[in-house]
Amino acid sequence: RQLYDPCGVVHHLRRVMQSSVSIIITSTLLLLFIMSTAVKALNTSLFAGTWKGKGRVLKRSGEEAATYLETATFEITRKTPAFVVYRMHQDTKNAETSKPMHTETGFCKILEETGAATCSLAHPFPSGFISELTEGSMSGNTRTLTARDFQRAVKPETTDKQVTGFKREYKREGDKLIYDQYLSSGGCDLYHHLHCEMDLQKN
């Protein structure tokens, strides 16, 4: 049985309540979108800066083969609402003898919306220059990169097994950058090859 409502008060209250609910839902969704966009924009810049620290070279067995000192620079060269581009350069030297070890340089592009990453890196190995194409993703404070292709500028001047796979995992915790790298050669499975912890250098 319908209520007698000559002034339409009940109908008016219903409309007001429906409008209020719609406003609350719309405001909540808008706030979530703004927060999500802000987090993504912040995440892509997390690794910018110059970092220095100490790392360990590991054998396939897990034994420590050597320790090294590293300086890594991740410089943002271009940033738009759609993506950010880093110039990357890393140098290492033996922690005991100060003898230069590995070095690499290149660029990495990260999409703001999805965190998808594509990197092009160059390695001047004694056995010949290697160009590496790497793909991966960024989520929260972690960036994971996996090598997809290697191109060698010259024929290897060594009988050692050649690198066939490489994976990098970078994680930022406060002013510390931690990475683990995994290597495979001669078609073997990836194994834990490097672990390094570096501190952000203040200007």
Task: Describe the 3D structure.
There is one protein chain. Residues 37-42 have low confidence and may be disordered. Helices cover 17% and strands 56% of the residues. It has 203 residues and is an alpha+beta fold. A hairpin with a 5-residue loop joins strand 3 and strand 4 (100-111). The longest helix is centred in the N-terminal third of the chain and has 35 residues, at 9-43. The protein starts with 8 loop residues before the first helix and ends with a strand.
Tell me the quaternary state. Answer: single chain
H and E order: HEEEEEEEEEE
Radius of gyration: 26 Å
Q: Pairing-aware structural class of the strands and helices?
A: alpha+beta
Largest beta-sheet characterization: 10 strands, antiparallel, barrel
- Enumerate how many helices there are, as a single number: 1
Give the fraction of residues assigned to helices.
10-25%
Q: What is the spatial order of strands in the main beta sheet? A: 1-2-3-4-5-6-7-8-9-10
Low-confidence stretches: 37-42
Mean pLDDT, rounded to whole units?
Answer: 83
**Beta-strand content bin:** over 45%
Q: What's the total count of β strands? A: 10
State the distance separating the first and last CA atoms. Answer: 76 Å
